[in-house]
């Protein structure tokens, strides 16, 4: 059976298990202390301390993904990120996402499992709202439309911050990776740029998308850097971590990168500063 058809018939349950494993992992991430930031000893690597399956979360995604009552909601996705909203809701962000319906067993492939039709809609990104541990709704998908033919946006880290420094109003800012279709080895797309989307709160309406780090001028795609693998706020700065795609081009290792932005200015390209190993450029 072709791999694409096999993948399409899977229900949300499988994703939920993977999601639980990823969320159960205890990842230790830290910024260097003041001395290290100014060129002192490099911070040591961090490793996974432990992990365990989050059964309640797995079951909730299985319930929501396998619900056959709607034809326009999430039934499975990858590239999972989440962000807590000021009103207590949790917003789940996904990259490639299946919509449509999931059907109960038996399925036409002869297995006793739920199944998804081969013509199920696939979008490049989606967002699902959770309240008090229960998934409520899928926002209109794709939430972030393709920037150009042959290109798409994958959401990564997200952060609630003031609309501008010191402003009382808060907004949600979502880091986006822009990729473009390309030949092997770029099976996940050629890196193009990092963007920042601003969403209003509490209605989660996309107000704008701004390109903050365009990489199209870097000739070697494996050296193009995308930001947003994760982020952390400290001392009035938002630190944004990123990386390149050297391993996609069979290089030994990919490299990590770091940028920082004053709190409230993630959507301003001129406010971004990049660590070059000895200072912020």
Summary tags:
four-stranded antiparallel sheet; mainly beta; disordered N terminus; single chain; 281 residues; 35% strand; 17 strands
Spatial order of the strands in the main sheet? 2-3-8-9
Largest sheet: 4 strands, antiparallel
| Succession of helices and strands | HHHHEEEEEEEEEEEEEEEEE
Distance between the ends: 52 Å
Principal-axes geometry comes out as globular
Give the uncertain stretches in residue-range form.
1-40
Number of helical elements:
4
Radius of gyration, in Å, reads 20 Å
Number of domains: 2
Number of strands: 17
Which structural category do the helix and sheet elements fall into?
Answer: mainly beta
Strand content: 25-35%
- Determine the mean pLDDT: 85
Q: Kindly state the percentage of residues in helix.
A: 10-25%
Question: What does the secondary structure layout of this molecule look like, with pairings?
Answer:
Blueprint: H1 3-8, H2 12-24, H3 34-37, H4 55-65, E1 76-77, E2 81-84, E3 90-94, E4 97-98, E5 102-103, E6 115-116, E7 122-123, E8 126-131, E9 134-138, E10 151-162, E11 170-180, E12 190-199, E13 206-214, E14 226-234, E15 237-243, E16 256-262, E17 273-274
Antiparallel strand pairs: 1-4, 2-3, 3-8, 4-7, 5-6, 8-9, 10-11, 11-12, 12-13, 14-15, 15-16, 16-17
Helix pairs in contact: 2-4
């Amino acid at each position: 059976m072709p791999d694409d058809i096999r993948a399409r018939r899977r229900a949300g349950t499988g994703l939920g298990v993977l999601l639980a494993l990823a969320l159960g992992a205890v990842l230790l991430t830290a910024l260097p202390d003041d001395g290290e930031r100014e060129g002192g000893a490099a911070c040591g690597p961090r490793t996974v301390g432990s992990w365990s399956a989050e059964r309640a979360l797995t079951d909730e995604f299985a319930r929501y993904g396998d619900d056959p009552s709607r034809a326009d909601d999430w039934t499975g996705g990858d590239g999972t990120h989440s962000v807590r909203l000021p009103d207590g809701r949790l917003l789940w962000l996904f990259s490639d996402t299946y919509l449509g319906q999931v059907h109960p067993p038996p399925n036409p492939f002869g297995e006793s499992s739920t199944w998804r039709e081969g013509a199920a809609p696939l979008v490049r990104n989606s967002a699902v709202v959770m309240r008090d541990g229960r998934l409520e709704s899928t926002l209109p998908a794709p939430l972030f439309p393709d920037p150009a033919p042959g290109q798409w946006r994958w959401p990564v880290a997200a952060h609630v911050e003031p609309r501008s420094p010191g402003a009382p109003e808060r907004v949600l800012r979502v880091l986006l990776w822009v990729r473009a279709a390309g030949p092997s080895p770029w099976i996940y797309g050629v890196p193009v740029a990092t963007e920042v989307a601003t969403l209003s709160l509490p209605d989660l309406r996309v107000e704008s998308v701004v390109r903050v780090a365009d990489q199209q001028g870097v000739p070697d795609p494996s050296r193009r850097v995308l930001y947003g693998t994760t982020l952390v706020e400290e001392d009035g700065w938002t630190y944004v971590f990123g990386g390149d795609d050297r391993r996609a081009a069979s290089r030994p290792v990919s490299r990590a990168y770091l940028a920082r932005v004053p709190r409230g200015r993630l959507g301003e390209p001129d406010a971004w500063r990049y660590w070059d190993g000895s200072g912020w450029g």
